Amino acid sequence: MSVLDVKDLTIHIGDTKSPAHAVDSVSLHIERGEVVALVGESGSGKTLTGLAIAGLLDPPLRRVGGEITLLGEDLSALPERQLRRRRGDRLAMVFQDPMATLNPVLRIETQLVETIRAHRNVGRSAARDEALAMLDEVGITFPAQRLRAYPHELSGGMRQRVAIAAALINQPALLIADEPTTALDVTLQAQILALIDQYRRDHGTAVLWITHDLGVAAGFADRVLVMYAGQIVESGPCARVLHAPAHPYTAALLGAIPGSVPPGTPLATLPGQPPSLSPPPEGCRFRARCPRAEAACIAAPPQVAAGEARTVRCFFPLVTPP
């Protein structure tokens, strides 16, 4: 049984007359101990997908369809009170800005202890010992001193480690990480990646890593899902997708990475802008920007196999389908 199964997740934003189809029939699964990277440019629907899985969308503004199953339980059918019990216990989320997670007026000790006691019948002293051990596990020096600190007294990298500690302290089955290293320098990025990688190896935690950084995905993920204009356009084992992309959009993303071309050579660029999703364009959503587009692309391409354990949403993929 997969840790996470998402089937036909659809998110509409706005009024009923002209909603934006921000996420369109997205399906994915993650196994125990597996890292799946969800990549794509800003506005592609990555963060909305993560928030929907965690049940953190605002219902008056966003209507969610599809099925979200965690450890065999349908989260999309749970009332809010039960869903809150799952968050922080079976499922946890780390955001790009740790201050979106940490309360600025509470000490670190209070926040970690209450995170434990909200989900488990543990005494305050025992919970404090767990919090101390968790800070040490995420690589925070002088953890007893940091427990007494407020978030503003810590550096950005240290705050992110505390946010990760809070997410992992109840040993969730699934961790959703939404660009948690984007605001950090490269040294801290490497440390955070190594920390989460070691934790998931030790505890079997499944990880959904949301990022626009293909370099991070290449060094960390087992599988990669490429998202464009609210749809998964390519998926498969990370090494195969990034070394031999099947979708023209994936190839364009890889061609825009500094170092992918000889020094002095201009980076590849795509003409135009991502399409408006209110309403979405007919046919292939990448058609207006695709160098391989033909008349057939006026129809919506299905998601088809593109080799072992790979799929692509394209009539004219860069690799020959089996």
UniProtKB/TrEMBL annotation:
Cellular location(s): Cell inner membrane
Pfam families according to UniProt: ABC_tran (PF00005), oligo_HPY (PF08352)
GO molecular function term, any single one: ATP binding
Keyword set includes Kinase: no
Alphabetized SMART domains for the sequence: AAA
Membrane topology classification: Peripheral membrane protein
Record-annotated ABC transporter domain positions: 4-254
Record-stated family: Belongs to the ABC transporter superfamily.
Protein name: ABC transporter ATP-binding protein
